[in-house]
Amino acid sequence: MLVIIIGFIKEVWNLLLAMSPYLLFGFLIAGILNLEIPRKKIYKHLSGSNIKSVVKAAIFGVPLPLCSCGVIPVAAYLRKEGAGKGATVSFLSSTPTTGIDSILATYSLLGPIFAIIRPVASFFAGIFGGTLTNLIEKSQEKKFIVKKGFQCNICNNTTPHSHTIIEKVKNIFQYAFVELIEDIAKWILIGILAGGVISYLIPGHIIEQYLGNPMFAYPLMLLVALPMYVCATGSIPIAASLILKGMAPGAGLVFLIAGPATNTATLSFVAGKLGKKTMFIYLSTIVITSLLFGFLIDYIWKISGNNINLIIGGTKMLPLWLKTASAILLTIFILKAFLKNFKKKINVKKEIINTGKVFNVPDMSCQHCVKTIDNAIRKLEDIKDVFINLKTKKVKIIGSVSTELIVSTIKSAGYSPKEVKSE
Question: Which residue segments constitute the domains of the chain, with CATH numbers given?
Answer without folding.
Answer: 2-331 (no CATH), 354-420 (3.30.70.100)
